[in-house]
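Supplementary notes for students who missed Thursday's class. We covered one full example, reproduced here. Read the sequence, then the structure, then the short commentary at the end.
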Amino acid sequence: MNLFIFNNLNRDKTIKNLLKFKEDGSADAYYKAARRLIAFSERRLSRGDIVREYIVRASLEQDGLPELETVRAFLRQDTMLIFDELLRADWDGLCAERGLVPFSKIDIPPVHTGLGGYTRSIESMMNSSSREALMGAMLAHAEIFGTGKNSAYAALKWENGALRGILNADPIIFDDLVGLEHQKKVLIANTESFVSGFPANDVLLTGSSGTGKSSCVKACLNMFKDRGLKLIELKKPDIGDLGKVLSGINNSMLKYIVFIDDLSFEPDDPGYKVLKVALDGQAESRGGNILIYATSNRRRLIKETWSDRDGGDEIHRSEAISERKSLAERFGINLSFLTPTQKEYLNIVEDMLRRRGISMTEEIRSQALTWQIQYNGFSGRTASQFVVNFLSGQK
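Structure (token representation):
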């Protein structure tokens, strides 16, 4: 096939073997293609035709593709060939003619990447009724979800120097979070502005463990992921790689939140300067398609030493304190998450139980209070853990 944009298909071993099997009925090509499709099935997204899913995803999930809208004439030629030579073929029929096991017998269940809209978009291309329909579906897909090997994932993580997709990402939504109305309102408004292409701020969420900071960030992703928002988890020890992460996603049509959980620094930690540069230089070091959301148990982010607090000359002490405050201030929005009161804690428990059809009673209230004493005190996380334990005892 003479392809302009998706020429990688000519080098793809599965596609090459499928075409050879189609052209001359080669049993060897069939077995090679079948083995590769079985391996691919471990990351399939749809219950539909596995061959067609492979073809569509092999086309779009390659890095380095141009923006499809800018090469429409070439895209038209490519989609014509892909539709005629690959998608329109009756692969199971070809297998039956030669007495071979149909590819549709590969029936491993699909995985979940957190992007239901992505899967539906892939299925629309798999089921295209014409060349024109395939081209239109590809253009719409690329505009919403982008292209590349990680485009199928709502959440990614930076691991061993590369971005990797996260399967079965946390499905939490804002309705699951009780008693955080102000924090939710601010975070939703900022993220809405960002996804809509308007100015938005980096966000620092501070407060005690279990108060809902990380959950709010993940709920943001789930609210906006079908509008092109992706989240990249960057662990604290990998902050030195932040520049690599930013350069890898710069100039993209998609929107990214780089999420750093449980952020804090020792006074001599080099990661501090890396983050400071990123927060200072949005226009230079990262594009307008990237925000940084971070959580911390420390409001000032950098650990204060006794020498900074009590010793040394006054000028040094003043500079150290100013430096600690300045990093937090570089986030445009600072949101505080307070530890719930007893009443708020019980309200969270009551709401979680009500959603499961269980009414709060004095006995349950007493159990919930005993639970927080024995475990982690008043927090949303403690409430959730109590409800899980309570429900397990109801079975």
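Commentary. The chain has a mean pLDDT of 89. The CA atoms of residues 221 and 353 lie 25 Å apart. If anything here is unclear, bring it to office hours.
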